[in-house]
Specification:
mainly alpha; 0% strand; elongated
Length: 343
């Protein structure tokens, strides 16, 4: 299982990231990290306490391999008490805390491991991961940079550093790491999605479309991926492709935002009746989705104007829809102006 967060761009939402975790809670070390862990014990004087601690670590590791995590954690913690310089014990305890979702305790133990072994890549990487999971993205960036100084071509560290920069709304900083992650693993779908999100944030929507489409060939299609692809298609004026993509999205999972975006695409294609139906579907799914009411209002206003202002029913429906939108979100100057002009 991969250990990356694989954070993805939100579907038409500016703040949050759509998917935070793919396998962040997987505590299984990579094949190359097992050898690292065997070298983590700092040389001591070989006291009985230190030897006992090493025995506890061996027992804890065996218990963990059998899935007996509670006892394994207790043994790792006792080993730390008996030999505070035993880095592998901190790492073992931290892995279990992370797997449980106790990122605060995991962060503390990983940090202690990095203090004992500053050049331990795994400790630095997982410390950064826990900080990211605790929404401390700025701190995570600094730690990931330290990890990458030790292992510049690590796929997960590059990918997660890029996503941390996205969380900080710094797509220009994210770009080189997102691009490097794709170069390291060209056939990884989430890495392509991340790179597409970076390009979209940089308003390079043509490049974003390329990445999203490659991601769609590499992974199972999801509504989030299709919504992101549709958004970038729309930003490049490719409304027919945008419409087809959104129709696929609503077949997979009907949602207010997918129907509302479909309505926008169809309106730009001058298919006004189908556009109105899509906006109404969005409002039916979520009466609080104000963009859907705006779409209904604009479509009905368009119908009213095409009737040479004779279709009073369309006008009444338009004004009602626009008023409902303002009830949900009052601060919409353009909608207020439409109501002032036609109401």
């Amino acid at each position: 299982m991969p250990r990356s967060t694989a954070i993805r761009r939100p579907s038409l939402a500016a703040a949050a990231l759509a998917v935070l975790l793919l396998a962040a809670c997987d505590s299984t070390p990579r094949a190359d990290s097992r050898q690292d862990e065997r070298t983590l014990v700092r040389s001591g004087r070989g006291t009985s306490s230190e030897r006992a601690a090493e025995v506890r670590v061996a027992e804890a590791t065996a218990l963990k391999d059998q899935g007996i995590d509670e006892r394994a954690l207790a043994e790792f913690e006792r080993a730390i008490e008996e030999n505070p310089d035993l880095t592998v014990a901190y790492m073992g305890a931290a892995d279990i805390y992370r797997e449980r979702g106790d990122y605060t305790s995991a962060e503390r133990r990983y940090r202690e491991a990095t203090e004992l072994e500053p050049r331990n890549f795994e400790a630095q990487y997982y410390l950064g991961l826990c900080l990211q999971l605790l929404d401390r993205a700025a701190e995570a960036v600094r730690v990931y940079l330290t990890a990458l100084a030790l292992r510049p071509d690590d796929f997960d560290a590059n990918l997660n550093l890029a996503t941390a920069y996205i969380q900080l709304d710094e797509p220009a900083q994210a770009r080189p790491y997102a691009e490097r992650a794709v170069r390291i693993r060209p056939d990884d779908g989430p890495a392509r999605v991340n790179l597409g999100a970076v390009y979209a944030d940089l308003e390079e929507h043509g490049s974003a479309v390329v990445e999203y489409r490659q991601a769609a060939e590499l992974m199972e299609l999801s509504p989030e991926l299709l919504l992101n692809l549709a958004e970038s298609l729309g930003r490049t004026g490719r409304y027919a492709e945008m419409s087809a993509t959104l129709e696929q999205a609503v077949r997979i999972e009907p949602s207010p935002i997918a129907y509302e975006r479909l309505g926008s695409a169809l309106f730009r294609l001058k298919d006004y009746d189908a556009s109105l139906d899509a906006f109404r579907d969005a409002a039916e799914l979520d009466a609080g989705h104000y963009p859907a009411w705006n779409g209904v209002g604009v479509c009905l206003l368009n119908r009213y104007l095409w009737s040479e202002r004779r279709d009073e029913s369309a006008l009444r429906g338009a004004l009602e829809a626009l008023r409902r939108s303002l009830q949900i979100r009052p601060n919409q100057p353009k909608i207020v102006e439409l109501l002032r002009r036609y109401g």
